[in-house]
């Protein structure tokens, strides 16, 4: 099926249907002090409102910044905007630093981690309550783990061509959603490759694990590690958790996906009922159900549509179908000042197109369990020469299966390059292909090698890298004046937008939440 589809796409003479896909990046970073400890300061005033600034917001904690680029048709524009956000932000951080790793710094006890604050509006208070609920359910320290999200949508020109290739007579909206869900299922099947190639969290601070944390080898006095790990962030030591493991969300059809998420939002969870919804008259979480809201369900990839103001994510999908996918399994690369580079973006773009073009049968329970096992085990043991993935119940080496996938991804890259001119995408794929032959060159292996060669711990390595990245952005050419003015204007106007939202509230918080959860 992949060969048939890629050959038909290649035969298009009037347009190149794979050129110009839209890509954006969301990159999280902890704010830390000059000594590498979690910042206790509020959101910097120079950044405007975390509630309404389109480019600089916060995730779980007041100290966990999230940088958001618009979606661009080429990787250079996306990376340049991300770098501009970094440069603008460093100017407003004073003596603080941005932590360069997905695994956190020395963050102390849960109570020392400040929740993100978004003002006095109902929507702002709801966001903080949701985060408090996350802290109760999973622990605040777990929510300080950071990552890079890559958002991607196929070019508009792709869909009419694909509809013709598939001889599909239904609506374009249905075709697009079905194709994206096929992509999502295949990403679940093959996403272990992203962890192997781009994982950069094989070690962590002993202080983060805590006294009762996982039993792991000591690299040195304050650093725990797994010798062949790629991404502890994406393992069962990181985002994975047992409570969500029993939530079954179908990826086989958009309606099933929406229904399953909705059911989880309305199904009580005994483990969460003990916290209650309110304590002393104040909300401590949004509900006692399996999920407070859709975004609580963690997945390495999400099918998404831009929601209207006040619209729930599932309602947006029901309204217009899938618009793009969000890839959530990329670690922050500590060797790149922006946390990601163009080669990574180009490979991931070609890879997700491969996932869409490859045959993608429905995921049954056995296939889902196999995919989850491959994901978790690659995160913890992916560089082990003796490690084997499971493929249809049979063991297979990561290098063999990965090389098969990368050869097909190279065909996608070749087609994109044909439209762009040059060889940027093929070069990006070739770089990653080399990592299958040389595991010691992966980011995770390089990080462990750096620690061994320097005789230093994870914390000291990351702190020195954070200082180096700040110096890098101070030394590069200043951003263009129009971009600087745009960032400053966005910060200023975001404060005005927040005040307008607060002034416009006409419902009590109880009424607002009741109305929000009644919209299915």
Describe this structure in words.
With 520 residues, this protein is an alpha+beta fold. It has one domain: Creatine Kinase, Chain A, domain 2, CATH 3.30.590.20. The chain is built from 19 helices and 14 strands. It has helices at 2-10, 75-92, 122-138, 158-165, 172-190, 192-198, 206-209, 242-245, 254-265, 270-273, 313-320, 342-357, 365-381, 398-420, 424-437, 443-454, 458-475, 481-504, 509-517, and strands at residues 22-32, 56-58, 64-68, 97-98, 148-153, 203-205, 218-220, 223-225, 278-279, 282-283, 301-304, 324-330, 388-391, 394-397. The strands form four sheets. Strands 1, 2, 3, 4, 5, 11 and 12 form a seven-stranded antiparallel β-sheet that branches. It has a three-stranded antiparallel β-sheet with strand order 6-8-7. The chain has a two-stranded antiparallel sheet with strand order 9-10. β7 (218-220) and β8 form a beta hairpin. α6 runs parallel beside α13 and α12 (342-357) crosses α14. The chain is globular. 46% of the residues are buried.
Annotation keywords:
520 residues, Creatine Kinase, Chain A, domain 2, 14 strands
Helical element count?
A: 19
What characterizes the major β-sheet? 7 strands, antiparallel
Strand content: 5-15%
**What coarse outline follows from CA principal-axis ratios?**
globular
CATH topology call: Creatine Kinase, Chain A, domain 2
Structural class of the helices, strands and pairings?
A: alpha+beta
Total domain modules = 1
Radius of gyration: 22 Å
Q: List unreliable stretches of 5+ residues.
A: none
Distance between the termini: 36 Å
Which architecture does the CATH hierarchy give at level 2? 2-Layer Sandwich
| Mean pLDDT over the residues | 95
What's the level 1 CATH class?
Alpha Beta
Helix content: 40-55%
Quantity of strands, as a count: 14
């Amino acid at each position: 099926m992949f060969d048939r589809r890629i050959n038909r796409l290649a035969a298009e003479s009037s347009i190149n249907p794979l050129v110009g896909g839209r890509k954006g990046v969301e990159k999280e970073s902890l704010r830390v002090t000059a000594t590498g400890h979690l910042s206790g300061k509020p959101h910097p005033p120079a950044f405007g409102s975390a509630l309404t600034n389109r480019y600089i917001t916060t995730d779980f904690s007041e100290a966990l910044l999230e940088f958001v680029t618009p979606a661009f048709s080429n990787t250079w524009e996306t990376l340049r905007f991300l770098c501009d956000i970094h440069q603008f932000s460093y100017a407003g951080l004073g003596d603080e630093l941005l932590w360069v790793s997905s695994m956190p710094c020395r963050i102390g006890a849960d109570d020392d981690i400040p929740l993100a604050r978004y003002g006095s509006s109902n929507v702002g208070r709801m966001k903080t309550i949701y985060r408090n609920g996350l802290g109760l359910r999973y622990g605040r320290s777990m929510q300080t783990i950071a990552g890079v999200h890559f958002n991607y949508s196929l070019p508009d020109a792709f869909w009419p061509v694909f509809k013709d290739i598939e001889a599909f007579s239904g609506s374009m909206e249905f075709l697009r959603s079905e194709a994206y869900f096929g992509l999502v299922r295949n990403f679940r099947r093959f996403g272990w490759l992203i962890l192997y190639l781009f994982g950069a969290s094989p070690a962590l601070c002993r202080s983060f694990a805590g006294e009762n944390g996982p039993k792991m080898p000591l690299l040195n006095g304050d650093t725990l590690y797994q010798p062949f790990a790629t991404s502890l962030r994406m393992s069962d030591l990181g985002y994975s958790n047992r409570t969500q493991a029993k939530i079954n969300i179908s990826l086989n059809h958009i309606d099933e996906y929406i229904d399953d998420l909705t059911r989880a939002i309305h199904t009580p969870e005994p483990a969460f009922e003990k916290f209650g919804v309110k304590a002393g008259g104040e909300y401590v979480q949004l509900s006692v159900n399996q999920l407070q809201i859709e975004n609580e369900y963690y997945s390495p990839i999400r099918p998404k549509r831009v929601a209207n103001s006040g619209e729930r994510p599932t309602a947006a999908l029901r309204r217009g179908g899938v618009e793009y996918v969000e890839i959530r399994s990329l670690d922050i690369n500590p060797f790149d000042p922006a946390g990601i580079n163009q080669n990574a973006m180009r490979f991931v773009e070609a890879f997700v197109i491969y996932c869409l073009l490859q045959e993608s049968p429905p995921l049954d329970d056995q296939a889902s369990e196999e995919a989850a096992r491959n994901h978790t085990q690659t995160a913890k043991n992916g560089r082990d020469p003796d490690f084997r993935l499971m493929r249809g119940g049979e063991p297979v080496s990561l290098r063999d299966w990965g090389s098969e996938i990368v050869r097909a991804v190279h065909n996608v890259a070749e087609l994109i390059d044909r439209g762009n001119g040059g060889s940027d995408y093929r070069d990006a794929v070739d770089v990653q292909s080399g990592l299958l032959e040389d595991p010691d060159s992966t980011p995770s292996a390089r990080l462990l090698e750096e620690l061994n060669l320097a005789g230093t711990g994870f914390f000291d390595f990351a702190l020195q890298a954070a200082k180096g990245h700040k110096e890098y952005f101070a030394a590069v050419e200043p951003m263009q004046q129009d971009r600087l003015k745009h960032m400053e204007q966005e910060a200023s106007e975001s404060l005005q937008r927040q005040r307008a939202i607060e002034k416009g509230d006409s419902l009590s918080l109880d009424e607002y939440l009741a109305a929000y959860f009644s919209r299915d």
